[in-house]
What we know:
This protein has strands at residues 13-19, 33-40, 47-57, 73-75, 79-84, 97-104, 110-111, 116-123, 130-141, 152-160, 172-176, 185-192, 199-202, 207-209, 216-217, 221-226, 230-238, 241-249. Helices cover 0% and strands 39% of the residues. It has two domains: 13-160, ntegrin, alpha v. Chain A, domain 4 (Immunoglobulin-like); 168-249, Immunoglobulins (Immunoglobulin-like). The protein is an all-beta fold. The radius of gyration is 35 Å and the shape is rod-shaped.
Amino acid sequence: MTDPAPLGQPLLDYAVITEPFPLYAATEGAPPTTLHIVVSNGGAESVYCREIVFSLPHGDLAQSLVDGDKDGEGSATGWTVEQLQEGADIALPKGDYEHFRATHQDENAAVDRSGITITLKNLHISKEPGTARIEIRETATTKLGDWPVSPGYTTCALTKFPAPEIPVQIVNDFRADKPEAASGGDVHLTWRGPTTLDYTISYGSGAKPADQQKDTIRDLEWKGTVTRDTTFYLTYVVNQATHCLTTTVTVPDPQLTGLTVTGAATVKGTLTVEGDADVTGTVEATEDITTRKHFLDPKGTPLRGELA
């Protein structure tokens, strides 16, 4: 780390808050983090600030803040925030850092009551718990035109806490948008939970996924269709244990691949048989029975004529 002794004291105050908060050491698949750096003037005099350079320790150590690709981006109202690449024409600390420079669009404007909020997005936090220190170098003065030879220097410490165990109850509210669908109708399943887990949707032959829909996902939704009553299973692993939630979609006009009835079956509407119908018992009817082909006797001979 750079020895701050030859540098001046800062004229502005700095505080950092993370989003999400608190800050956890990254785990596999963790989303990027955002830093909000609040800059304010706690003194009695007006302060004019030309630029501020933020140096974020980069690497896989406990004292590193960020790791992986250096593709963060910054913004602030009234300021231009840019990431500095290696070889930039500016004094930077030695070592592995991700640097951002904030430049005031009007260096004659004072930092007074309103302060500044500088936002750094898309930061990939390192995986080792520990305390990292953001190095801050400001070029500021209380007298316009009398800029210091050396920048003011300070640091802000940020602690990366160990990532907590995910409680089983954090995955919940597994349901279909509609509890009933017509045969061949659409099904949309949703649930709540962290997007860092792998979720698997399982189901029987009465359902199928939509085009491009995968059954193992992280985006907290699944789309498909159903042709008959189907129970969907949502499984996920937390703390090396597999957990499961279920939801059911009913279909009032199901399509079946086979049906065996061991008792009486009553059809109150029209019964249409598009294939052969084999009857081993007696057929009784109080109304007409019509066929477009033939009734066959046990030997397969068509029955002809009118029944007495």
